[in-house]
Design brief:
The structure holds two protein chains of two kinds. By secondary structure, chain A is α/β, with parallel strands linked by helices. Helices cover 42% and strands 19% of the residues of chain A. Chain A has 13 helices and 15 strands. Classes of the chains: A alpha/beta, B alpha/beta. Strand 9 of chain A pairs parallel with strand 2 of chain B, so a sheet runs across the interface.
Chain lengths: 356, 263
């Protein structure tokens, strides 16, 4: 298919349709509302399920209900709405049903604002709801990647019977770019739903989907199984992009919109003779820790750049384990760091570690 | 289901419905959940719906209902069963979906979900078991606890100046345009049990016909947390609860009326 001009939010919504989305439940919130608006007419045109819920609490539980029956289902929201979904996410994770959630992040905490931000890194990667689990977290840095990762999110959610969350900041949601849509996949047939799904106990024993395990030993067994699944995801699904790392003496680490801005920073720094590369995590969980550890042996220092107070920074430090100095530059409240902000930080790091 | 040989001169008049498992319930002796479970199972059997039913258990005493119902079941977060049921039924219109919820679940933490599901006319059925107390957590004040009724969190009796008034959910939901059939019944005696079964049949039939949201509120007892004998609890319920929560239909839509007359 040829490239077309797509707004990020609409592209995300359309990509979900192409991936075989059967039902969407959501609630309006800036800056993701165009996801809901696009689906509100496209899903109905296609004879699929669209429902505007009374709250994000209801949305995620509608997703949970539909996911229990083995259909491809998603919701989308922005930071405060995702906060309201934490309970439901925890139940879905323990119940091991596949679900896709899209978070077009805005500035926080609290009501914050509707500017692009990355303050939900912890929430998405570390603390989505109570209990021990992780979601697969995918972070695009442009509209095309958002489309591709949206499709991947459904496939990974199904493969591991888990939650896949796309986290994009408002800049990606609202920008327009040329991008190519994948072809429309045929919808899953009812008989293709998982054996575990609630489809009516016809000619089989009843299925139960629950997150309740009263005995301590029983719940530990469930947790061990969940952990085993997480280890499999860590082994198979880590994704990242590298730019100019082959001969890099310094490394930028950034994701999403600021990951893309750092590509420009790398180009500009290279033009000035600074041997810098960029690692951009595409999966925030699982995190490309092993590759960062490797690069820590090659480079003399790293600069982590985020649109928050330093959240992914902690995972970079955990991966690097002190093998090289790590500096941080972050902007908050919806302020987007520009190459002109990043370059002086890079020079400071260069001077501190004596690179070049 | 196990079959048994019945002697030629005898007739089988009573057996466990196929929609119930043989499991022994965890409910306290005297609890009316068991009666309500059985009524639901009988109705689903009689309507031939077991193999296309998906039930949703709540958080509360009936959290383990999926051990007792012999069909597909999910377990919801506290109060969220109507949202789950919405998600299920919208994607599976050929299935019969119901939520089984207590008073704290439906009338406190899950008020938004039940009101909006009812108002949208979601095509599932809610069985609302109202025993005027939080049973599972040990007898705290519920949204339906009667004025003056003692609980562990209103030890001097519910003071409406402090805690507000009990919620009349059947009246509230019956007043919404999306509801097809809303009724309040009680299982305190044989007559009430039979009427409850009839109400459940009407609700499930209305769901099958796609007529709108249906709910059967069932007044129930909790002799354990009311600190009464089983019979004493039934008498107290008949005397006090029914006075505060009048029995009968709060909504029978024209379409449901027509369905009932057709029969």
């Amino acid at each position: 298919m040829a490239k077309e001009l797509w707004e990020g939010n609409a592209a995300i919504a359309e990509a979900a349709i192409r991936a075989g989305l059967e039902a969407f439940y959501g609630y309006p919130i800036t800056p993701q509302t165009e996801v809901l608006e696009h689906l509100s007419h496209r899903m109905i045109e296609l004879g699929r399920v669209f429902l505007q819920a009374e709250s994000e609490v209801a949305s995620i539980n509608m997703v949970y209900g539909a996911a229990c029956t083995g259909v491809r289902v998603m919701t989308s929201s922005s930071s405060p709405g995702i906060s309201l979904m934490q309970e439901g996410l925890s139940y879905i994770a323990c119940s091991e049903v596949p679900a896709v959630v899209c978070n077009i992040m805005r500035g926080g905490p609290g009501l914050g604002n509707v500017q692009p931000a990355q303050g939900d890194y912890f929430q998405a990667v570390k603390s989505a709801g109570h209990g021990d689990y992780h979601m697969i977290v995918l972070a695009p840095s442009n509209v095309q990647e958002a489309i591709d990762l949206m499709v991947l999110a459904f496939d990974l959610a199904d493969k591991y019977r888990t939650i896949a969350m796309l986290v994009a900041d408002g800049a990606i949601g609202q920008m327009m770019e040329p991008a190519e849509m994948p072809p429309l996949r045929p919808l899953r047939k009812p008989e293709e739903r998982g054996e575990w799904a609630l489809t009516g106990a016809r000619g089989r024993e009843p299925n139960t989907i629950t997150s309740l395990y009263l005995g301590a030993e029983n719940l530990e067994v469930v947790n061990l199984r969940l952990q085993e699944k997480l280890r499999q995801i860590e082994a198979n699904e880590v994704r990242w992009k590298e730019y100019d790392t082959e001969d890099a003496e310094l490394l930028l680490v950034a994701f999403g919109t600021v990951g893309r801005i750092c590509q420009t920073a790398v180009r500009e720094a290279r033009a000035k003779g600074v041997k810098v590369g960029l690692l951009r995590p595409v999966t925030l969980w699982p995190f490309p820790s092993a590759r960062l550890a490797e690069l820590a042996g090659q480079v003399q220092g790293m600069l982590v750049v985020e649109m928050n107070a330093g959240q992914m920074l902690q995972d970079v430090r955990l991966a690097v384990e002190g093998r090289c100095p790590i500096e941080f530059y972050g902007r908050m409240g919806g302020v987007i760091p520009l190459p002109d902000d990043i370059l002086p930080e890079l020079h400071k790091l260069e001077a501190a570690v004596g690179a070049g | 289901m196990a079959t048994i040989d019945i002697p030629a001169d005898m007739e089988l008049v009573y057996q466990r419905p196929e929609s119930l498992t043989p499991a022994h319930t965890h409910y306290c002796p005297g609890c009316t959940h068991g009666i309500i479970h059985r009524l639901i199972a009988e109705v689903l059997d009689e309507l031939g719906l077991r193999e296309r039913t998906i039930g949703i258990a709540p958080v509360g005493c009936s959290v383990l209902a999926y051990y007792y119902f012999n069909f597909d079941m999910a377990e919801a977060a506290h109060g969220r069963a109507p949202a789950m049921a919405t998600g299920m039924k919208r994607t599976n219109p050929d299935k019969v979906v119901f939520t089984y919820q207590g008073d704290g679940d439906l009338a406190a933490i899950g008020t938004a979900e039940i009101v909006h599901s009812a108002n949208r006319g979601e095509l599932f059925t809610t069985i609302f078991v109202n025993n005027a107390i939080y049973g599972m957590t040990g007898g705290q004040m519920a949204p339906t606890t009667l004025p003056g009724q003692v609980s562990t969190s209103c030890p001097s009796g519910r003071d409406v100046e402090l805690a507000g008034f009990p919620m009349h959910m059947a009246e509230l939901l019956g007043g919404l345009p999306g509801t097809a059939y809303v009724t309040r019944q009680a299982v305190f005696d044989v007559r009430g049990i039979r009427r409850t079964k009839k109400a459940l049949t009407t609700a499930f039939r209305a769901q099958l016909a796609g007529l709108g949201f249906t709910m059967v509120e069932v007044l129930s007892t909790c002799n354990t947390n009311w600190h009464m004998s089983v019979l004493g609890a039934l008498e107290w319920a008949k005397d006090k609860m029914v006075g505060y929560y009048p029995l009968g239909d709060t909504k029978v839509s024209d379409a449901v009326r027509a369905m009932l007359e057709e029969k």
